[in-house]
From TrEMBL:
One of its GO terms (molecular function) is 4-hydroxy-tetrahydrodipicolinate reductase. GO terms for biological process: diaminopimelate biosynthetic process; lysine biosynthetic process via diaminopimelate. This is 4-hydroxy-tetrahydrodipicolinate reductase. It is an enzyme of class 1 (oxidoreductase). GO terms for cellular component: cytosol. Residues 3-108 form the Dihydrodipicolinate reductase N-terminal domain. It comes from Leuconostoc litchii. Residues 151-176 are annotated as: Disordered. The keyword Oxidoreductase applies. Belongs to the DapB family. Its EC number is 1.17.1.8. It comes from the Bacteria. Residues 112-239 form the Dihydrodipicolinate reductase C-terminal domain.
Length: 240
């Protein structure tokens, strides 16, 4: 049985993972911002951790994920990162330090992965594109990691330069030449739309997640894959 330390285990995604993880995996401890009742040990700081595991699964916060990842690497664990907010510089440092597989997954949703793949295909024919992502108000980072990754993939797939537009603040954050807009509204878990415009035609791709349980199959795929890879990989699409 594969042993897992779960960081962020009492957030909504962390709770969904606890409730739906398959019998092949055993959570041997949880790192959390505060104490909770649990059948397994709960730690509130890295210094308190007194067990080891095969995989460190991190669905914590942008403020803690980098330090957590370095801890896991130093203690010879493979790492699956579902928390967003890592900078390009931090990712480069993790890549340098990784001794086992490290898998960064901006979105565990299979439909989100397909949206990114469809967007890459469309970008070859429609260079003019903008991304809109919507999450609940408690999401602390903006744009989302999924939206950033989508923009980067679109930029790399373009065969033509987009039409120049204004750079006013209302035009969103420019990520590799793709405007990205973030909405934070109650009633949403995760939604992303990618809007392409051409001569007298438009193409819109939309992906929605209505429950965090939808992320669990992607989590399980990631846990199965990370022990078989070497170095750092970004994206669920790279392992399915």
């Amino acid at each position: 049985m594969t042993k897992i330390i779960l960081a962020g285990g009492f957030g909504k995604l962390g709770q969904a993972i606890q409730d739906n993880l398959t019998e092949n995996y055993e959570i041997v401890g949880i790192l959390s911002g505060q104490q909770h009742e649990s059948k397994v040990p709960v730690w509130t700081s890295l210094d308190e951790i007194d067990v080891t595991a095969d995989i460190w699964l991190d669905v914590s916060t942008p403020a803690t994920v980098y330090e957590n990842t370095l801890y896991a690497i130093q203690h010879d664990m493979a790492v699956v990162i579902g928390a967003t907010g890592l900078s390009d510089e931090q990712i480069s440092k993790i890549r340098e330090k990784a001794t086992k597989g490290v898998l960064i997954v901006p979105n565990f949703s299979l439909s989100a992965v397909l949206l990114m793949q469809f967007s890459q295909l469309a970008a070859r024919y429609f260079p003019d594109v903008e991304v809109i992502e919507v999450h609940n108000p408690k999401k602390v980072d903006a744009p989302s990691g999924t939206a950033k990754q989508t923009a980067k993939l679109i930029s790399a797939a373009r065969s033509e330069e987009p039409t120049p537009t204004s750079s006013d603040s209302a035009r969103g954050e420019n990520i590799d030449g793709v405007p990205v807009h973030s909405l934070r509204l109650p009633g949403y878990i995760a939604q992303q739309s990618v809007h392409f415009g051409g001569v007298d035609e438009q193409l819109t791709l939309v992906q929605s997640t209505t429950s965090r349980t939808a992320f669990v199959p992607g989590v399980i795929r990631s846990l199965a894959a990370v022990q078989k890879v070497e170095g750092l990989i970004v994206g669920l699409d790279q392992i399915i």
